[in-house]
Amino acid sequence: MSSSNDAYLDAIADASPYPYWLEGVDIPDSNPTLVRNTSSDLCVVGGGYAGLWTAILAKERDPSRDVVLIDAREVGSAASGRNGGFMEASLTHGVANGQQRFPEELASLERLGLANLNAIEAAIGHYGIDCDYERTGVIDVATTSHAASYFDELREDHAQLRHLGQRVELLDRGAMQDQVHSPTYTGGLWRKDRAAIVDPAKLAWGLKAAAESLGVRIYEDTKATGVERDGVGVMVSTPLGNIRAGRVALATNAFPPLLRRLGHYIAPVYDYCLVTEPLTPAQLESIGWEQRQGLSDIGNQFHYYRLTADNRILWGGYDAIYYWRGKVNPDLESRPETWALLSQHFFETFPQLEGVRFSNAWGGVIDTSTRFCVFWGTALHGRVAYALGYTGLGVAATRFGAEVTLDLLDGRRSEATELDFVKKKPLPFPPEPFRFLGIQATRWSLDAEDRTGKRNLWLRFLDRLGLGFDS
Which of 52, 120, 336, 339 has the largest count of CB atoms under 10 Å? Predict the structure, then answer.
């Protein structure tokens, strides 16, 4: 019989190592593999949110444009179908990161981010996408788990967001407990209209259906193996057929880029999460959470969590794992030691849920950059464009990324393309072994700051380089 000290291990013992979102009955039929040469006006490489939005917006802008989208697996099978389902308006991975890197443009970026979220909500309605969309906002939570005084950071964010005209509420300990009951909570910042929660897989499948309704040709199990100049266009190579396209949009995110130089700017990082069994009415009452906001604690190594449509709790984050040489492999989607750590943290946060078990535990790879938000560029004399580096906050930002990608391909000037946010690239990561050693040193230092409240020499050095980092 297990002791109460290791009950968190029993909670994950029977968890299915498969994404909860991908077990539904709504999985669409697979599309064929490309087996012959073809041509198109635009070829989109990648069938996640970034690629789907690019294809949809391209057809909305010009219905006569012939668009082909290819994916190495199934549409939505990677990060887009297995993330936490947080849809944030921020394009800069939070106002603090935006202030640090683009202070002169922050007001514009926050405005554009909200317009982007509104446009997504409108598209969900227009295309009839059933994805359990709830615009509940999100609360950044301060807890007793950290020695650092992160509540002061919430005060600063609150003041800045109010200055930008946003609807936010600073919650002291009592007000936070009124929203969600946890003995670890000391306060929070509720950003009320700038975030939503969704079923991420249903969103991806709904976007696939929308793209096909507009005439986009989608091929699955079709891996792009190369991209090169081909006369006045571009040739995209796949194992069984090539695509001759006038323009190409690359939306491969964490996977090895077709343009080799882009590998210096992104690092694939694995993130892991759990989902509980459905909570009973009594269990729900014990935690409150009547407004169903998304929640995220604010340490360097943070947890994100939310309620699903059937009242499970998705609980993820904290460990962000970079593997040697940026390895990407389906085997890495399983990491029992991280699942155990997450389970332990879950019951420390919600001890009143003792006895709850987790039904699913999984992982997935995301792309990060040294500025922790998306960046853009072009290649092959402007015939190829890309957007990469969303750093785990791409559920909404990918639509904005797609708009800018199309602007670049079409040679269209817009408010966004005139911003340094779009024009400038992040600093590249160093080569191995320095990349691996640097990331490990940073993870250790961030954990130390959470425990001690002190930022060590390594983190202060990164700050001077403009590489302030969180998980």
Answer: 52
Superfamily of domain 31-133+193-266+369-429 in the CATH hierarchy: FAD/NAD(P)-binding domain (3.50.50.60)
Judge contact between 5 and 30, C-beta under 8 A: no
Of 435, 429, 427, whose CA–CA distance to 375 is shortest? 427
Q: What is the homologous superfamily of the domain 4-23+134-192+268-366 according to CATH?
A: D-Amino Acid Oxidase, subunit A, domain 2 (3.30.9.10)
Is the preceding peptide bond at 433 cis, omega within 30 degrees of 0?
yes
Q: How far apart are CA 274 and CA 255, in angstroms?
A: 23
Return the ∠ at Cα 270 (arms to 266 and 274), rounded to 5°.
Answer: 150
Angle at 293 between CA 287 and CA 298, to 5 degrees: 90
Cα 421 from Cα 267, distance rounded (Å): 20
Q: Which residue has the tokens 């949110």?
A: 49
What does 372-411 look like in DSSP terms, one character per residue?
SS-EEEEETTTTEEEEE--TT-HHHHHHHHHHHHHHHHHT
Identify the CA nearest to 264 among candidates 374, 428, 377: 428
Q: For residue range 338-389, what is the model confidence (pLDDT) as tens digits?
A: 999 999 999 999 999 999 999 999 999 999 999 999 999 999 999 999 999 9
Whole-angstrom CA distances from 435 to 254, 257, 348, 440 are: 16, 18, 33, 9
Tokens of 17: 């190592």
* Digit-coded pLDDT (tens) for 242-286: 999 999 999 999 999 999 999 999 999 999 999 999 999 999 999
**pLDDT confidence bin for 469, thresholds 50/70/90:** low
